[in-house]
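Hi support team,

I'm opening this ticket because the web form for multi-chain structure prediction keeps timing out on my end. I have pasted the exact lines I submitted so you can reproduce it. The total is 287 residues across two entries, so I didn't expect it to be a heavy job. Is there a limit I'm missing, or should I split the entries? Thanks in advance, R.K.
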Amino acid sequence: MIGLNEYLILSGILFSIGLVGVLRRKNLLMLFFATEIMLNSANIAFAAISGHYGDLSGQMFAFFIIAVAASEVAVGLGLLIVLYKKQGTLDLDNLAVMKG
Amino acid sequence: MEQIAFYIFSVLTIGLFLVTVLSSNVLYAMTSLAAGMVIISGLFFLVGADFLGVVQLVVYVGAIMALYSFGMMFFDATKDIKEKNTNSYLVFALGGMIAVMFVVIFSAPVIGENIQATYFVTGATNPQAVGLILFTKYLIPFEVAAIMLLVAMIAGIILAGKKMDDSLTTRDENHEEDTTFGLKDEK
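Hello R.K., no limit was hit. The queue was backed up. Here is the completed structure from your submission:
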């Protein structure tokens, strides 16, 4: 029988994969992908705890996380397109234009 | 049976997300991310959150990944991303340690058995129970989320739809000097 701990361990592993992606990648689109991975790992933890306790609040929070992720993608992709129009690249190292 | 499904789903999800994080091609990363989302919805079905699994399929795989692949038309997706990574092992160790710390912090009260379940719904299937809870206890967050999605839609239209008639791909030959300089306003 799979208990709560296995789901939490899986969620932690996925969150660490996403965090490594955020720390390691230099491309902004890849940073968005890594953020999606982290949000999904949080969703797994919420759904597992909700199923374990028989309480539906965890699933509600997972729904709101999905809504936040959808709006984040909409706004973030618009910003990426504007940035690509101006810069011609999505590399984070080329964005240091405010460096004195 | 549940154990077999759980372990298959976990191994597949971890592998696909590792491909997403470590691949240097944007198309491979996006495809493996979409596949990982599908398998995560399988995990939701396993937990008993049926409606959440369906929403995950529809919103993540159907909407968000489609949005990414439409946005991919604006970027040059075929060439590999060149990144210089200084110390990869340090990043792996730091990321793992920070993530384990987060998980311990947030799961300590759950493990401590102090949490009482608040909203029970008995005698209803999962989508019915979700509807009952969502439109009674969580009505105001639901409406706020709707307004947030509207604001995000307007922001996306305004940000991406401005100067749509400018071609992005033929721009480099015409204005070579514009791309080298940074966030300068066009005259």
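A quick check on our side: DSSP finds eight helices and no strands in chain B. Let us know if the file doesn't open in your viewer.
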